[in-house]
Structures are given as C-alpha cells and as structure tokens.
Amino acid sequence: MCGITGWIDWNKDLTTQADTIEKMTETLELRGPDAAGTWLSRHCAFGHRRLSVMDPANGAQPMVRPAKGVDNHDCVLVYNGELYNAPELRKELQDLGYRFRTTCDTEVLLLAYVEWGQECVEKLNGIFAFAIWQTHEEKLFMARDRLGVKPLFYRREEGRLLFGSEPKAILAHPEVPAEIDAEGLAELFVIGPARTPGHGIWRDFLELKPGHCLQYDRAGMRIFAYWQLQSADHEEEVSQTAEKVRELLADTVERQLVSDVPICTLLSGGLDSSALTALAVDYYRRENQGNVHTFSVDYVDNDKHFHAHDFQPNSDAPWIKRMTEYLSTVHHPVQFDTPELIHALEAAVLAKDTPGMADIDASLYLFCREIKKEATVAISGEAADEIFGGYPWFHREDALKAETFPWSLATGLRASLLSPELREKIHPQEYLADRYSQAVSEVPHLAGEDEVRKRMRRMSYLNITRFMPTLLDRKDKMSMAVGLEVRVPFCDHRLVEYVWNIPWEIKTAGTREKGLLRKALEGVLPDDVLYRKKSPYPKTHNPNYLTAVRARLLERLDDPSCPLLPLVNSAKIRELAAASDASSHLPWFGQLMSGPQLFAYLLQMDFWLRQYKVKIVL
C-alpha cells in the first residue's frame, strides 16, 4: 500500500515545481514509509510514497513504461493498492508478448493499461486507487476500486487538477486554502462521521466514487462508472447458495494471503474475524507456512465496567481465547487505557484530515500501531455485516420504517446541538432528507419483488454504499497512518455481487442474522462461535473516559476563542453533559457512538478547526 498525489496544470511548466510536488508527496510519508519518488513533465507532476509489500527490491514508483504503438512516448503510473489476480493478468499479458522487469503488481497494472486502456479496470480484482499519465495525448486517467477500499481525493480548478490519497496532500499545495463551506459543515454535523459518496468535506474537494474512473485532458474532465450493483433473480437453493459463498470466501482469503512481508489476522472471536482466521489457518497448514499470528484489542478494566445491551451483547475476551486455542494461533492481545485513548483522538484527526469516529478511530489507530511492530499486512472482517445483513437495524422494525439512515436515527438531537445561525445556513433536517432521498433513488430494484424483498434490498444498498464506506475509510486512514496494510476479503466484488441478489429469506437462513454466512461456515468454526450473537468492534466502557472527555469539552467551551462556539448550541451541550444518563442514551451514530463519543467528536472538531486553521466560508 502507498500514498499517491499529482498535479496537472495547463498553464504552468511543472518541471519548475519540484519543491511543491515533493511537499505534497511528503505529507503521505506515513502511508509509505519505505521509499519516495516523483516524476515531472511540463504539464504533469506525480508523487509517490511506498509501503513495500510485494517485490520490495523493485517496483519503485512513479513507474514508466512505453505507450503501445507510439514511439518515444510513455505511460506513467502512481498506484495505491493490491491486485489479487495479478498472476492471471501477468500470464495473459505475457501471452500477448509483454516482458516483465519486476514481480510486483504495479507493473502488471501499468502494462494492463498499456494493452487495454481504460477497459483494464474491468479485469482487476483488488483494492486500488491509481493515476496514469499518457505523455503522447497529455491525458490523465484515474480509477478507484469497486467498493472504495482505497481513497482518492481531487480538486479541479480552471486549467488545473490536483489529487491525492488524502486531503492533506492537496492542502499542501500553496494555492489551496484550508476552507469549509455550509455543505461541508452539513456533512460533518448532520451526516458525519459518515460522508455522502463523492464528497470531500473541504471546500471544492471531491472524492472519486467507488467503481468510477476520471479522465482529464485539455478538452475537460469526464467521470464515469465502470461498476455498480446489478439486480437479478437468484436461482439457487439455500444449500447451493451457502456452498457458493464458502467457495468464494475461501478463494478470496487465499488470494489475499499472498505477501512478501509478515501477515496476520485481526481476531475478535466473532463470526467474521473467526471465519477469516480459520480459513487463513487452513491455507497456512496446507502450504506449510507455520502458525498464523492473530491480534485482538480491548481496554484496561473493560470487563469490570461492561454492561450488555442490544448493540453489544457480550464481551470478546472469552471468545478470542476459544478461537486461539481452537486454531492454535500465535496470539497478541493488545490493551489500552483511558489516557491513551484521549491522547490519540488528535492523532486520529491528523490521520483522517477531518473529525471521525472519536475513540473508535483512536483505538483503531493505537491497535494498528501495535500490530505494525510485528506485521506489515493484516486481514480484517469489515463489510460482512453490510453485505449479509448483520447489523441490528436490518432486524428492527423502527429502523426499517424510519425513512432515514438507520445508523443515524437521533436526528432531532443532532439538530439541537447546532447554533441557530448554523441551523439557518445548513437546514439540517432538510439536508439529511435530501441525502437520504438521493440514496434511495439509486437503488436498482428488481421488477416483481414483493414489498419485503424491496425493503431489504433498499436497506442493503444503503449499508453497502453509505455505511460501509465510513468503516472502510476509517480502517484505511487509521492503518495507513502507521504504515500497516489492511486487507478486507468480504469486499471482494465477486462475493458482493453474488450476495447482493440473494433473497432476504435465504440470507437469514435459520432465522438468524447472517444465517446464510453461518451455514456456509459450518465445519469451519465450532458451533458455539458459529452461532455467537453479533458483537461489534469493542469500545471502552470505563466511566473515567466519559468523565475526562466531558470535562475537556466543557473546558473548551469556556474558552472565548473556541472555534466551536459559533457553530454549536453550547447550552444544549452543557445540558447533555450534566445529565445523569450522559453515557447511556441510544447511539447518535452507528452502534457504538453514544454520550462519551459525542463529546469526543466535538473535541475532535475543535482540534481540527484549530490545527488546520480552517476558514469557514458561509
């Protein structure tokens, strides 16, 4: 994995702008701590930071190869990602006469573009964001993977386009101001920590949507989709469907275990992570690769403060022990205490360039930092709940009928936190309703579906296209901030395409959430783990955390220079802080973000406004 950035400019000679492209590239050092490179021509400048995973000795970027059929012209690539079907593509290209200088997938991708042009993206199985400059046509081509695992932001102005893996790379350009407008504030306060697809938060920043390509030349810019969910009838019975799911998942895990550097799995003892770990162990045994290393996260004294509820029915510790003993993995338990979590709130903002999921982000950042000491690549279970319907809101009537995003039901509370002036500017309820309507209008319904199937297809679409990107972005930013590559097998597009069209009554086979996935994994996991009730990524239950973030936030609000003051309803926040149930009200976002996370989110907002010197343009 890596960090990429670039600058196309029709009005400047970029060969004189080496310092600027180097500064833009340097902001991505943490994503790629192993090497750096830049490439400049008159109208294009590329920068790359490398995290070496495949063929560490070779594969330096930007990578240049001759264009097909055009003498003395090249194609130049910067690439962040991993191709899991690189061996097949390499063989196909070799059969066409291509000769390779490296064993890395970077060269496979570049030569695939040389041969097939923009249609190459349809052949790729992997996670990627890349940019290619064709010197003979003076044309930029960029693409992002189907599910949006790897990020790609851009900003277009008259005669100029800037891009980067993270906003910080674009912000490093001396002519780009750190500004946010009313729509960006609506994203942060109304939609956040989720984000509308394609929205870049910062003023005039956009993100290339998953499954999309961008072409930019002197004639202008064109964006088009090369992949989207397609609805079709599902013909197989339950047993056939389960077998197909198992085959696809096993093949995906095996492809994603290929690495020239140490690899591990994240293990919570839940269905998803246990399944991936079990499949990894089976593959390692067959290939005589030794024991799999596993990592888990928890918090000091969390067992003393844990209280079961619908969103988090039990703690992970006993289940982790069960699986590590069952699979004989080399396990590394990781624990954090309250002061570390609070301190890492700021590191999480710096990693993401915006406020995020508060201590949920902070703990993941710390967790990844510990993993990086032992491994460079990790396998993680993100996306299974979105794809197979595991979240509580898939199964709750109030969420299914809410006519809003089911992970953000506390719309009244969120609106009440805003100052009257900001409410007047962004119209929070209307903004949310518009974004929800936009999402629902995109759902590719299947003709003849009854109301139940139609409703569940809509719920699945919202989760795959609106909630899942939030978790994928979180995982990418927190892991890459410490130079750790995280792979997510449940995001394999073949699996997603197949499961998308499985009827709800089959997905819930056995009347359980993710019943089909459980059936597909029979014999892979012990029954008690196989049928364990879903429990999400753990958060701290220590009351000291609430006490600390609440006190810090109130202290900030007492400061007349606090940049939050014009944006929030301080009286309402103080009222919530004084309430005896400040830690126990229903989540205002997702499954885990309740009172303590609300205060921490506002602390992150305050830090972000100060640290980035954000100018608000209303």
Automatic annotation (TrEMBL):
Keywords: Amino-acid biosynthesis, Asparagine biosynthesis, ATP-binding, Glutamine amidotransferase, Ligase, Nucleotide-binding. Its EC number is 6.3.5.4. It catalyses: L-aspartate + L-glutamine + ATP + H2O = L-asparagine + L-glutamate + AMP + diphosphate + H(+). The record marks E382 as: Important for beta-aspartyl-AMP intermediate formation. One of its GO terms (molecular function) is asparagine synthase (glutamine-hydrolyzing) activity. InterPro entries: Asn_synth_AEB (IPR006426), Asn_synthase (IPR001962), ASN_synthetase/amidase (IPR051786), AsnB_N (IPR033738), GATase_2_dom (IPR017932), Ntn_hydrolases_N (IPR029055), Rossmann-like_a/b/a_fold (IPR014729). GO terms for cellular component: cytosol. GO terms for biological process: asparagine biosynthetic process. L-glutamine binds at D105. The active site is at C2. Residues 2-219 form the Glutamine amidotransferase type-2 domain. The keyword Ribonucleoprotein does not apply. ATP binds at L266, V297, S380, G381. Pathway: Amino-acid biosynthesis; L-asparagine biosynthesis; L-asparagine from L-aspartate (L-Gln route): step 1/1. It is an enzyme of class 6 (ligase). Belongs to the asparagine synthetase family. PANTHER family: ASPARAGINE SYNTHETASE, ASPARAGINE SYNTHETASE (GLUTAMINE-HYDROLYZING). This is asparagine synthase (glutamine-hydrolyzing). It comes from Cohnella luojiensis. The gene is asnB.
